[in-house]
Each structure stands twice: as structure tokens, then as C-alpha cells.
Design brief:
By secondary structure, the chain is α+β, with helices and mostly antiparallel strands. Helices cover about 50% and strands about 15% of the residues. It folds into three domains: about 60 residues; about 170 residues, 2-Layer Sandwich (Nucleotidyltransferase, domain 5); about 55 residues. The strands form two sheets. Strands 3, 4, 5, 6, 7, 8, 9 and 10 form an eight-stranded mixed β-sheet that branches. It has a two-stranded antiparallel ribbon with strand order 1-2. The longest helix is centred in the C-terminal third of the chain and has 30 residues.
């Protein structure tokens, strides 16, 4: 069923302020009654958020920022968190068969990435994801204990762990070892079904009433809350992978070419990317010298020949 309604200019202004959307007036138009109800409910929710942000002393934007705040308030409700998770940190581990192990820490504030609070942790070479998670979070939390007034190491409202029950339990051990288990909320996000797991101070997985559960007993989020948690997890993964690759490239460029006077980093990378190794560069000086000339010029080629003892 639909019904015809008419809006005054005052009605238009109120609706635009509450919904953050532009309203167009026409001489007459039809609204489905369900749509009217949804529009009014959105306005009610935004008004509640407006009041909440006022209590927090925040400057208000009744559009994008307001919608993000609605999302983190909803996340608090869905996960049963004690406070609104305004500062969320996420951790991920990246490695290559137990080598080049890095832990990433990314931070979202009020639903947006805050890159000044991103951190990277170099871990010992080991193919043990659980232990690496525990080590990284322990180091991060000790930074707060040692520098409690430093905003960069302030405790978050929510910690998100990239992984399942095992990673969650490993990180919870870090909280226990430092006596912070009652001060921090922590969840893990498992990739397979995007299930969120929570744990309490008794190390028991929490089952929230009225929550939609996945096959492993984790909570299934939906809508904007699911998108926000996924975005945070994906950003932690991207940050870890990017720095892992950078470390591998830096290590790969350390070779016998480092000790050649007059061969700079850019030239060295160009040679290694073309030939693959210092040994292959030396072989190319015998088999394909014209390519080496073309790539780095006569002066560098001459220095390479001297270094590798090629007299011809």
C-alpha cells in the first residue's frame, strides 16, 4: 500500500538534518509506508547519535562521520562491548615459510584508519603463527606500560586479531601475562566464514544472546559492522604484506655487488632484477656483454669486469 504525503520546507529541512540526505520537494509524490517508517527510524537513530556525540564533546558532521559513528555504536551492541570502540587496533602476521616474519599493528579511530598509529614488529624466524601473535601483542602492550602517557601506545577500546580461536587464545595469553585481561576487549576474525570470536577473563568463548552464529560458534556480523571489521582486518594484512615484501627485496639486493665502488643501489637493483644474482651478472659479462653495456653503460661495466677479474 502507498500513500500520498506533502512536505513543507520546514519538514524538508528537518529530514535533511536528521538523515544527512538531500530531500527534493515536488508538488505531489508517493511513498511506500514501509519506506516512510525506515526514513523516520534513520532520523531517530541519527538524532540519538547526535546526542551521544554531544556528550562526548565531539564536533559533529551529520553525514559521513555520523554514519561511521552509528556503525561503531552498532558494533558495540552486536559484540556486547563495555564501551564504544572508538579506537580499534588490528594485528596480523606475515612471513615466508617462517622467514622474514613481521607483525603489523594498524589503528582505526572513529571508523577511519589513523596511520600515525601504525606500527611494525620484526619477529624471530619461526613458522609458528600462534607464538608470533603472542610475541607481537606482548611487545605492543609493554610499550604502553613503559610509556603510559604516549598517545601512540594508548590502550585501544577493541583489539581485532586476524585469525580464529587459536590466534585469539595466543593473544589472550599476552593479556594474562601482563594483567590486562580485564582492561581490554579482544575479538578474532576468522577468514573462512568471517566469524567473530570473543573470549572472557575465564578464557571461555562468549556466546552472546540473540547473536547470529556461524558453524564454528562464532558471531556473524552483517551490514556496515561486518564491512568495517573486514576493512580493518584487510588493512592489517596489507600493511604486513607490504613490509614483508620490502624486507625481502632489501635482503635480496645484498650481494657481492655491494662491495663494488661506484655501483650504487639503483644500479645494483637493476642488475639483480635483470640477471637474478651477482654470479649471473659475472656470467653475462662473458656471454652477453652488450646487454650489460646497454643496461648500465661502459663505465659501470668496466668496474664490474675489474671486480670479477674479467680481463678480456
Amino acid at each position: 500500500m502507498s500513500t500520498k504525503i506533502q512536505l513543507t520546507q520546514e519538514d524538508k529541512n528537518v529530514l535533511e538534518e536528521l538523515t544527512g540526505s538531500q530531500i527534493y520537494l515536488r508538488n505531489s509524490f508517493e511513498f511506500n509506508q514501509k519506506e516512510i517508517g525506515e526514513l523516520l527510524e534513520q532520523g531517530r537513530q541519527n538524532a540519538l547519535v547526535y546526542l551521544e556525540r554531544n556528550k562526548l564533546g565531539q564536533k559533529l558532521s551529520m553525514f559521513e562521520e555520523n554514519n561511521l559513528f552509528v556503525t561503531i555504536v552498532e558494533l558495540q551492541k552486536q559484540l556486547g562491548l563495555p564501551v564504544i570502540p572508538r579506537r580499534i587496533e588490528c594485528y596480523d602476521i606475515s612471513h615466508l615459510s617462517g622467514k622474514f616474519v613481521y607483525g603489523s599493528m594498524i589503528t582505526f579511530v572513529d571508523g577511519r584508519p589513523s596511520k600515525k598509529f601504525y606500527r611494525l614488529f620484526k619477529c624471530p624466524d619461526q613458522n609458528n603463527d600462534f607464538e608470533n601473535h603472542r610475541l607481537v601483542l606482548t611487545r605492543r602492550l609493554k610499550r604502553h606500560i613503559d610509556n603510559p602517557k604516549n598517545d601512540g601506545w594508548a590502550l585501544p577500546d577493541l583489539i581485532v586479531v586476524d585469525g580464529g580461536k587459536g590466534q585469539l587464545d595466543a593473544d589472550y595469553q599476552a593479556l594474562l601475562s601482563l594483567g590486562l585481561e580485564s582492561k581490554l576487549a579482544m575479538v578474532s576474525l576468522a577468514k573462512k566464514e568471517e566469524e567473530v570470536f570473543l573470549i572472557d577473563h575465564n578464557q571461555v568463548l562468549i556466546k552472546l544472546p540473540n547473536a547470529k552464529l556461524g558453524s564454528q560458534g562464532g558471531i556473524l556480523l552483517d551490514g556496515q559492522t561486518k564491512f568495517l571489521i573486514q576493512r580493518i582486518r584487510d588493512e592489517a594484512h596489507r600493511f604486513a604484506i607490504t613490509n614483508n615484501r620490502a624486507a625481502r627485496l632489501k635482503t635480496a639486493t645484498k650481494s657481492a655487488l655491494d662491495s663494488i665502488p661506484g655501483v650504487g643501489p639503483k644500479t645494483k637493483i637493476k642488475l639483480l632484477q635483470t640477471f637474478g644474482s651477482a654470479q649471473a651478472v659475472a656470467q653475462a659479462l662473458y656471454d652477453n656483454r652488450e646487454l650489460v653495456y646497454e643496461l648500465v653503460g661502459n663505465s659501470v661495466t668496466a668496474k664490474l669486469k675489474i671486480h670479477f677479474g674479467i680481463l678480456q
